[in-house]
Structure formats: structure tokens, C-alpha cells
Design goal:
Length: about 375
């Protein structure tokens, strides 16, 4: 008989309900929706085939599941994830793995039995566009990487979005804004593509476009040791927005925008051309090609499928949760730099950021 993973879906809100529906529909082979958990029993009623819980502690200890998928508000990722790991379950946690780096360290420290699979929902790692860019960087086709610019101002959210749940837009409920909620995927891809920077200087605007406590706009400068720099710009208030990724290297430049990936290749590497050209305003001749990549969708379920394959077959994880600390650290460091009006060196002091966050929570009357 083929083994089947009994999955418990914790959090049946906007995202968790979508996961649970697809798993219940059998989209993931060898995975059964065995239990669901939400605070609101109305959400649970949509899944009569699964055992229903209103407390994650009860689901985790029920014996009804082998693994859990956590899609609850951000702070509870750490507590629920650690509880599930300590009780021997495999865990797939949605982004961000934790609100802040100290919590991410606590969560990762709870993963002591490495036979348990611990993964994160970084589904954009399965996107053929980013896989292609990563492969071309790793294969040396871009040459040494010099600069990455990512502008993601197409996260527009109206006021109704922030009003839709009391945890949104607050330091005590959400723990951050566009960096913590909308950008974790890009902040995951950034080090996955080019590594972690050594220092960050960022400028955040808090409640610039919405009546919220947290940041709804950020402009960050990331500095690496090897002559590589990056900028990261994001907003939930700008319309029309842009989503444009540029990565420039010795041999050319990728641009990904409007679903099209182009690579402009320098016929001579940039620094070699600079050394040898005699003409004052010359630049390397280039050739631009559109790289065909087909996005077939289904990325979230690809991560769940990989999670199940890792449990049953030992397949390598696409997104180990331990790597989720990098996007948390980048988001925290951008906030810290902005709040302290100075450059933050990485690795960031996790206790310092936690203190800063607690101060923000207290200032805004949170608990
Ligand atoms: N990966 C993605 O593409 C993606 C997209 C959107 C949201 N998300 C993430 O999904 C998570 C949930 O977001 P959402 O928009 O679905 O939120 P939501 O407010 O719509 O739903 C939250 C759910 O969690 C439940 N819940 C709250 N506290 C709980 C607790 N302590 N124990 C058990 N259940 C609890 C609520 O009852 C509700 O069912 C967040 O981490 C968010 O960042 C991921």
C-alpha cells in the first residue's frame, strides 16, 4: 500500500482555505487533508471530511496528523511551528517563517530531530523564470554579478485590505508591513540568487498611504563585499505599480518585467571592454534575446508536493525552513536601518531588533 501523509492545515483564512481546498481535492498525491484548525468554526465547516479544531495545540496532539501546514498570522508561525516540531510532526510554514530574527532562531532551534521535514512556503523558488536566472548566474553566463535592482511597487492594497483583519497593519499583529507580508518571497529570492549583503541602509515610510502603524513603502540599498550592490524598492500605496528586476553582470544584464525575461549579452565583458577601448564614449556592443520560460502555475502545491516527497522519499527540499531566516533578517535590517537612521551590518543583532520591535508595539498600545 502506498503511504499517505495525513496533513493538518492550521489557519483556514484567505490563504489556508485555498491550500486546504486543493489538498482536499487531491491535487497533491499521497497527501490527505486529515485535520483543519481555525479560530472561527465557520471556516472549519467548509471541510467536513477533516477533523476540526479551534486550538492548534489540540490538533498537534490529536494523533490525527503526521504533518502540519501553518497559514496563520505571522507571530504564531514561531509558537505553532515550534510546538508542532517538539511534538514530532513534519512542518511546512508559510512566509515569513517568523516576524523577527530572534523568533526565527527560536523556531529553527526547535528542529532538533532532522528526520522531521521542516519546509517553508517559498513557492516562487519553483518559478521557471527565477530558476532560469539562477541557473544562468551559477553557470557563469552573466559573469561576475555587479548590481541587482528590484522595484516592486505593484503590491497596491486598498484600505479595505488592512481593515479586513485586526492583525493587519499593526506591529503587534503583523509585525511589519510590505516587508513582512508582501515581500518575503522576493526577499527570499534575493539571497537565493546572489547571496546575503554585508550591510544595509534603508528608508521606510510608516503609514504613508494607509492608516496603518507599519511600513507601506521602503527604499533599501544593499552592499556586498565583492563590488556588488543592490536596491530594493517596494510599496503598497503606489498605482500604477511596477515590478521590474534587473541583474547586471560582467557579461550583460537580465531584465524581468511584465512576464518577459530578456538577456542582453555584452559581446565583450564590460571591464575588459573598459580596459581596452580607445574611443572615449564607446560601450560594449550587445545582443538582446527573450528567454522563453513558461509559467505553468500551481507553485504553492508544488511546494506541498515537494514537502510530501521529502517526508516519504527523502527528496531534497526546494525551500528548507532554515533558509527562511534570511528573508526575515533582510526585512528586519531594512526596518532597523530606517528606525535608527544608520547603516546596519549583517549578520544583524537579533536581540537588538527584537527590542526595537517591542518598543514599537508598546508605543502603539499593543501587547
Ligand atoms: N505564500 C503565499 O503566497 C501567501 C499569500 C498570502 C498570505 N500568506 C500567508 O498566509 C498566512 C495567513 O494569511 P491569511 O491572509 O490567510 O490570513 P487570514 O487572517 O485570512 O487567516 C488567518 C487564519 O488563521 C487562523 N488563526 C489565527 N490565529 C490562530 C491561532 N493562534 N491558531 C490557529 N489558527 C489561528 C484564523 O482563524 C484564520 O483561519 C500569513 O502568514 C500570510 O503571510 C501566504
Amino acid at each position: 500500500m502506498t503511504a499517505t501523509i495525513r496533513l493538518g492545515s492550521i489557519g483556514i483564512g484567505a490563504m489556508g482555505a485555498r491550500y486546504a481546498e486543493q489538498i482536499a481535492a487531491g491535487v497533491v498525491p499521497r497527501c490527505k487533508l486529515a485535520a483543519v484548525c481555525a479560530r472561527n468554526p465557520v471556516q472549519l465547516a467548509k471541510f467536513p471530511q477533516a477533523r476540526a479544531f479551534t486550538r492548534s495545540e489540540d490538533l498537534i496532539r490529536s494523533g490525527a496528523v503526521d504533518a502540519v501546514l501553518i497559514a496563520t498570522p505571522h507571530y504564531s508561525h514561531t509558537t505553532i511551528g515550534a510546538d508542532a516540531l517538539r511534538n514530532g510532526l513534519h512542518v511546512l510554514v508559510d512566509k515569513p517563517i517568523s516576524v523577527h530574527k530572534a523568533d526565527a532562531e527560536r523556531l529553527i532551534a526547535a528542529h532538533t530531530d532532522l528526520r522531521q521535514v521542516f519546509a517553508a512556503m517559498f513557492m516562487m523558488r519553483t518559478d521557471p523564470v527565477f530558476l532560469k536566472i539562477r541557473q544562468m548566474i551559477h553557470d557563469g553566463e552573466l559573469g561576475e554579478v555587479r548590481r541587482l535592482n528590484w522595484t516592486i511597487t505593484n503590491w497596491f492594497r486598498p484600505a479595505a485590505y488592512y481593515a479586513s483583519a485586526p492583525w493587519r497593519g499593526t506591529w503587534s499583529g503583523e509585525g511589519g508591513g510590505v516587508l513582512l507580508n508582501q515581500c518575503p518571497h522576493q526577499l527570499d529570492l534575493l539571497p537565493w540568487l546572489i547571496g546575503m549583503p554585508r550591510r544595509i541602509r534603508a528608508f521606510c515610510h510608516f503609514g504613508k498611504y494607509h492608516h496603518i502603524e507599519v511600513e507601506d513603502e521602503v527604499t533599501a540599498y544593499l552592499d556586498y563585499d565583492n563590488n556588488l550592490t543592490a536596491t530594493f524598492i517596494a510599496s503598497t500605496g503606489e498605482a500604477p505599480g511596477t515590478n521590474r528586476l534587473e541583474i547586471a553582470g560582467e557579461n550583460g544584464r537580465f531584465v524581468f518585467e511584465n512576464g518577459i525575461l530578456t538577456f542582453t549579452r555584452n559581446e565583450v565583458p564590460a571591464s575588459e571592454f573598459s580596459r581596452t577601448a580607445k574611443e572615449l564614449f564607446a560601450a560594449p556592443p550587445t545582443q538582446t534575446t527573450v528567454i522563453p520560460v513558461q509559467n505553468i502555475g500551481g507553485q504553492h502545491m508544488a511546494i506541498v508536493r515537494n514537502f510530501v516527497d521529502a517526508i516519504l522519499d527523502g527528496s531534497p527540499l526546494i525551500a528548507p525552513a532554515s533558509e527562511g531566516i534570511r528573508s526575515v533578517e533582510l526585512a528586519n535590517a531594512m526596518l532597523l536601518s530606517s528606525l535608527q537612521e544608520q547603516t546596519v551590518e549583517l549578520p544583524m543583532d537579533s536581540a537588538l531588533f527584537e527590542k526595537e520591535l517591542l518598543r514599537l508595539i508598546a508605543r502603539h498600545g499593543g501587547v
